[in-house]
TrEMBL record:
Residues 15-25 have a biased composition (Basic and acidic residues). Keywords: Membrane, Transmembrane, Transmembrane helix, Transport. It comes from Pandoraea vervacti. Residues 38-476 form the Amino acid permease/ SLC12A domain. This is Amino acid permease.
Amino acid sequence: MTRTPQPPQSSSSGKSRDFSHITRREQGLRRSLTASQMAMIAIGGAIGTGLFLGSGFAIGFAGPSVLVSYGIGALIALMLMGCLAEMTVAHPTSGSFGAYAEHYIGPWAGFLVRYAYWSCIVLAVGTEVSAIAVYMKYWFPQVPGWYWVAGFSAALVLVNAMSVNLFGAIEYGFSLIKITAIVLFIFIGAYVVFIAPNSVASAGHAPAGFANYTAHGGFFPKGLWGMWVAVIISIFSYLSIEMIAVAAGEAEHPERAVTRAFRSTVVRLVLFYLLTLALMLAIVPWTAAGQDESPFVKAMQAINIPGAAGVINFVVLIAALSSMNSQLYITTRMMFSLSRAGYAPERFGEVNRRGVPLAALLLSTLGIALATLVNFLYPESSFTFMMAISMFGAMLTWMMIFVTHFFFRRAWRREHHAPLAFRMWGFPWLTLLGAGLMAAIMITTLFTGVFRMTMIFGVPFVVAVLLVYFLWYRKHDSQPQGRTMTRA
């Protein structure tokens, strides 16, 4: 193994040198992911528990107006992807938005964003495995959920430890199953709603149709506040679309792959989320959507196709495994980037002969351990608890991506004469709108009982992270800290 420290920074701002020093220190990962695999990685992360189980919570808050909630979330996600695409095409690296914040805002921002994102994804992994325990109850109601948490977790950690090629292939397969199932659900749902609405009534339910949007308290049964609170869950649902930016560090042709993957992912996510929710709410009244199982399973039970509910439950299980697989990958790379920046122990920046940061992967299983413990102690509330504490880091990261893009564009205009290969439209207004919406959503959690733990956990976390940086790492900014490590 060789270790080559980078030259010291000449200022604490981190802007005195061009971005290439960050790219050099994060070398060692294998560039073998294709554009289609990258798109599937993002879809794998974003179409998971947030849609198949979390949507049940969102419907409980908003009723049919959850469609507006997810529309607002989709708008924010679209703006975020535009900002990320612009920065990622300019600087493809595994450190991604953490590295961009370090370079364009300051080292403290890169430190905060990386640790906030790493912690939120570690905890989000715990959310996915908590959901797996819920899904397995459909077939095995007597088996303790933590059995499934431990077993499935061990299998996916092994997949991530093998190679990025194996990870990409399995994630592609997982995502293909999900997309196929969602497309089939859309066709079946459209048939039931538009052609055979009484097929649901014959199974003992009210006829399917858009009348269900207003039949139980109107379109806004919980008011505008309920609709706005559900936006919190929509953001959690869209979380992981930013994975493409991190995966760019292992893409074959990052500039071309990132652009294609961003565009296809945004279209697919918006289409899948809004269409499936619209049809599901037309088939099953919103009052029947609950937290004990996926609302999509309930929709298939209402349609009364033999075995369909079990098939959908299998699909949502695959969706959770896929999201967990993607999140293990991404949180490992973020810890790898932290180590290479000098903000975590050196061993987390080392890669094995297969190009995998194994030590960073093992550290990133902490969320699984926590989820296993919570599921063992509080099996009925483990999912909501893990979701609440994981969301702060995600929301902070999204807000900081918008802020970083604002600094990035101003710096690019000042320092570069060449035009950007990909440009975010509507700058600076859409960038500022995205940052403002994310700040408002974060503040909203304080006034929502089930999500109050988000800020109770998040604010002390941010204070602790910044104290660690300013008391310990800031004094090292003038010393060699970037690391380049390879293993023969």
